[in-house]
Amino acid sequence: MKVMVTGGAGFIGSHVADALVRAGDRVIVVDDLSTGFRANLNPGAEFIECDIRDPRAADLVREERPDAICHHAAQMSVPRSLKEPMLDVDVNVRASLQLALEAAETGARFLFASTGGALYGDADVLPTPESYPAWPVSPYGAGKLAFEHYLHALRLSLGLDYVVLRYGNVFGPRQNPHGEAGVVAIFCRALVSGSYCAITGDGRQTRDYIYVDDVVAACLAALRGAPSGSHYNVGTGRQTSVNEIFELIVDALGSTAKPVHVAARPGEQKTSALDSRRISTELGWRPRASLRDGLLATAQWFRAEAGQEAHLTPA
Questions:
Q1: Cα-Cα-Cα-Cα dihedral of 79, 173, 237, 242, to 10°?
Q2: Which of 31, 94, 202, 208 is positioned for an S-S bond with 9, CB 3.0–4.6 A?
Q3: Do 201 and 261 meet the contact criterion of CB atoms below 8 Å apart?
Q4: Residues 57, 37 contacting (CB under 8 angstroms)
Q5: Alpha carbons 295 and 135: distance in angstroms, whole number
Q6: CB–CB of 44/73 below 8 Å?
Q7: Domains of the chain (ranges, CATH numbers)
Q8: Residue 216: which of 11, 19, 56 has the closest Cα?
Q9: For the purposes of burial, counting CB atoms within 10 Å of the CB of 8, is it exposed (0-12), middle (13-18) or buried (19 or more)?
Q10: Quick one: pLDDT at residue 180?
Q11: Alpha carbon distance, N-terminus to C-terminus of the chain
Q12: Per-residue confidence band for 314, with pLDDT thresholds at 50, 70 and 90
């Protein structure tokens, strides 16, 4: 299979590209390196540096005619979507729609990396199933939901073959700790560098944390076996607070650090957990990594990265 992975130099996309290369697929990575890194690129994949907002991205789909597109390129920050909602729409809706239209034209399967927690908000039902009404509270979530609706419309009007995966809070090696990244990456980087960890509010807010290897497995299962038009949650079904995450990472690193609590973010979501029984029933997928083991592997990766950076820094 010939697969184009947008955002394939980023956190999740690079792991997906690795797995596809290992499976023997021909992989084309498209990334503008704005948040991804060359070090994440698999040497067995072809790399094309391109912003998906550039019309050339659509040209690439027509030229390469992949069998599938794993669309992981995105504006991925909820806080940034609040500050720059037009940027969020430009990347996560307009540019993504450009690629989906080309996928419909060329007959490629389109796998879209969506969001779970940001889609459902503070749901009354936990874990939250795909059937729960989606009323996002951030421009980021609204953009993801809008694009899901575009995919549905394109399937009906143009025959687009698509699958949507609604991720929980994905964590693991290669996660970008700079800016408004996932809390696991931020905590790991701060602790291994000797910086303090800030927890917003009381730290009791919960998320559904899922290890990147399990997300990759869901991608491969959906890419090859999901019925067209499917929407799946990809999570563990468990709530874990930010305070618990901090303590587990501290334990994994053998640290004695204490967090610093800062003011809560206005409107911050309080709870999230995803009901993933649909993907389990239909595709046989289930999360395999325990939270503790996943955090240990992630913390060790950040420690090794910090050691390499220290080695490369001139005295």
A1: -50
A2: 31
A3: yes
A4: no
A5: 30
A6: no
A7: 2-171+210-234 (3.40.50.720)
A8: 19
A9: buried
A10: 58
A11: 48
A12: very low
